[in-house]
Amino acid sequence: MSSLWRQICDFFITEYKHLTTVNKSDRPWQMPIAASLAMGLPLLIGVHFQHLNYGLPGCLGGMVFLYLPNTPMYHRIVTLMTCAFGMVTCYSLGVISQFTPELMVPCLGIIATVVTIACRFFMIPPPGSLFFIMAASIGMFIPMDVLQVPFFIGLMSLGSILALAVAIIYSLFILRIRSAGPIAKVQAPTFEFVIFDSVMIGLTVALSLAVALSLNLPRPYWVPISCLSVIQGLSTKAGWNTLVQRIVGSATGLLLSFYILSLDLDNWTICFVMMGLNFLIETLAVRQFGLALVFLTPLTIFIAEAARRGVDDTPFVVIRSRLTDTVLGSAIGIICGWCLSQPKFRELISAQMRKLIPDHH
Q1: Maximum CA pair distance of the chain?
Q2: What CA dihedral angle connects 340, 341, 342 and 346, to 10 degrees?
Q3: For the segment 303-317, what is each residue's pLDDT rounded down to a tens digit?
Q4: What are φ and ψ of residue 264, in 5° steps?
Q5: 3 state SS of 356
Q6: b or e along 25-40 (b: 16 or more beta carbons within 10 Å of the residue's beta carbon)?
């Protein structure tokens, strides 16, 4: 019993250290400000024309700024333009698929697989494929008429273009006071890392959405997002640490979300609150993931729910739905992550997948 008790204590001590460790960061303080402007300007423009719901797709497109690398100017622009194209494509496919519900699950699975392959092949650092999948998932469940599809895709595209403009202005300034970092060399891709893992991640994300839809969850978009953020670790320990941080951070964030949603905020205030939340996220993300999640939770709720705020559900219903989605998605992610960490499982499935590759000899 004493040995078991010691193991339990060591486990909680280790997890507590993971939750409280604050990493050092060399990120310039101007970067969170620029990221908040890239995300917030579409919101401000939408509110100015008395259509907050029109600013939300542009806000989602503004998140492409987060993929800005610390590299020379030409590489920054090419990288961000490529990511912007990918974000708009994922969002467009998500929006279109909502009008054919039977295609939603395979569509998200294919998107997750292809985007993960691209991010791993070109060594895109965190957040990796996360925001691409978020754009597709939210796009699948944003209420709209079929004739509004081109309009909303256009708003998303304009938000990405605006983020690119902010990134160029920010880069012109920051590269005058800080030297650009080196361009990471693309290493030789391996089948296991690029193809096998990506396909399994895509299948898991599709499975999580299928489970959410089968349970008739009112807001299933967050289930595959939570699942993806956990399974990206692809190891039992990494997956468990992510699960603990996500549940603790999201649970605390839900309390903050409930408080903000309970306030009688006008649209202008909502915009500045969302920009402030994004500033805190980008300041804390590289320092403490769990703490950043405290502010990411209300931000993503506002992105998906602000357009219909006060129309249907109470803050309590929204928060309860979000908690259910997070726990469900994280659980699916950690189960599949555990399977991927088993050598026998990887060897068996990988061997079957390799048989599908044409023999060119």
Answers
A1: 68
A2: 40
A3: 877 655 544 567 777
A4: -90, 80
A5: coil
A6: eeeeeebbbbbbbbbb
